[in-house]
Amino acid sequence: MSSMSDKPEKLITDDGLRLDGRRADEIRPMKIEIGVLSRADGSCYLEWGRNKILVGVFGPREAHPRRMQRADSAVIRYKYNMASFSVEDRARPGPSRRSIEISKVSREAFEPVIMAELFPKTAIDIYVEVLQADAGTRTAAINASSIALADAGIPMKGLITSCAFGKVDGQIVLDLNKEEDNYGEADFPVAMTQDGEITLMQMDGHLTPDEIKKGLELVKKGCKEILEIQQAVLRKKFETPIEETVEEVTDTEDTGNKVVEAEAPLEYASEAAVVEEALEEAEELEEEQLCEETVETDALAEEIPEFEELEDIIKEAEALVEEDTVEDVVEAEIEEEALEEGTLEEDALEEALEEEALEEALEEEAEFEASFEAAPEPEDFEELEPIEEEVSSEVEEVEFDSEELAYEEAQLEEETGIEEVASEETFEPEPEIESETKTITEVPAEEAVKAEVEPEEKKCEGPWKVVKDPSESGSRGENE
Ligand code: UDP
After folding, report:
1. What is the DSSP secondary structure assignment for residue 259, as one 8-state letter?
2. Could you give the CA distance from residue 95 to residue 256 in angstroms, rounded to a whole number?
């Protein structure tokens, strides 16, 4: 809070309006854009009043350093950073006590809804950059992160919404702006699930229990409005394919397939309903073919009343034909078996040939390696001048590689050392060196993790993920 001498005489005018023209229970205008970063798995740019926030979500991806991995779930990492130009008096770059605290409480605000147990050994990284600050940046960042997580297709039980209330000129007001934050009596940020369960609650200043009660009522109202904005933005971006499906179904109605039910519009239902919906969708996909056939048959039965009778007659005829041809079928099966055996023999032959080829290749490799051992001594080089150049350049290359590797290892050790000292909230953005090391030694492990993770991920895709247009997605799986 800055010096009281700069304080405007009144923060709330006699007609109950605040300096920016809002009433006590109004939030600042909010604007959200989804998928603004092509290299992130999910991203969001959010403006709330004069706050400007950018969020990038990466993951689930293999967690580094490895000791951070959890065998039973993903680790969620949240990094709040304030750009030095985001505030009036230049903010000091790098982590501060304030940014570490905000990162911690914000991460905890998301932990109850992110289904981290689906992605063991991975990390879900949320990077927040405050580009312009005007009070309420942590709440703005949480709202933006919620959208970015949904954009990344991270399975969540629901969205998280955040808003603050405070006390200004003795009045409880919603969503403080900079002046109100600076000169007001209290600031009380809250985050909640879409069912109203509180996942973040902080207080700066003094409030009576009654004031808190009143403030929480205001915050509930504010969060509801924000949730509606979040949902509207997500619908606008991801619901289009479902609308197309609905149209298609409507078209077929004219042709008589009335049995098909139009898919219900995307709804942010309660937690259980969201999971149920995802499971149903998976089942629906399997049944789709069957469903279509049933629809056709039913439509036919409606049009021709004798259809059922006809069907019975056909079945009987089929049974008769089957009886006659039982012997033929048995013969055909015997023939098939004989053929299969032949194929098996062929397969065995192929395998033997492959093994032979493998052995030859191994022998060649052994010979190649042996040729190194029998390499001429330096004194022999004088006689073998043209070879000398080749050999020495190879040696140089090898030396360079091992130097580079040693350097990378040293860097990695240094990095690990720093990580150990830093608190878990101050995790550094994945440094270049780490990804390089990955390409040298850890690609197979990473692929293995992906292979483990992907089927699970499909099972639990949220509604926004299901309808996502792959062409619009960021470079998900950038490490592949
Ligand atoms: N602020 C600033 N310099 C700083 C930190 C914060 O000018 O180093 C301003 C900024 O506008 C921020 C406001 O003070 O939005 C309130 O900060 P607070 O710590 O209450 O967090 P916020 O309300 O942004 O979540």
Report:
1. T
2. 64
Q: In this predicted model, what pLDDT tens digit does every residue of 49-61 receive, in sequence order? A: 999 999 999 999 9
d(CA 291, CA 452): 32
pLDDT at 281: 76
116-172 pLDDT tens trace = 999 999 999 999 999 999 999 999 999 999 999 999 999 999 999 999 999 999 999
User: Degrees (nearest 5) of the Cα angle 250, 254, 256?
Assistant: 110
Residues touching ligand 1 (Cβ under 6 Å) are 87-88, 91, 98, 133-138, 178, 181, 187
CA 426 / ligand 1 centre spacing (Å): 19
Maximum distance among all Cα pairs of the chain, rounded to whole angstroms: 105
CATH of domain 4-238: 3.30.230.70
Average pLDDT over residues 358-385: 52
Q: Residue 434 CA to chain centroid, in angstroms?
A: 21
Q: Which of 22, 57, 30 is nearest to 136 (CA)?
A: 30
Atom of ligand 1 nearest to the CA of 164: 23
Which residue's C-alpha comes closest to atom 16 of ligand 1? 135
CA of residue 182 relative to chain centroid, distance: 36
Distance CA 153, CA 466 (A): 9
| Helices of type H across 374-474 | 385-421, 432-437, 443-459, 463-466
pTM: 0.57
Tell me, in angstroms, the distance from the centre of ligand 1 to residue 49's CA.
14
Q: Are 167 and 205 in contact (CB under 8 A)?
A: yes
**Residue 376: its H or E element:** none
Least confident interval from 50-59, 190-199, 365-374: 365-374
Residue type, 50: R
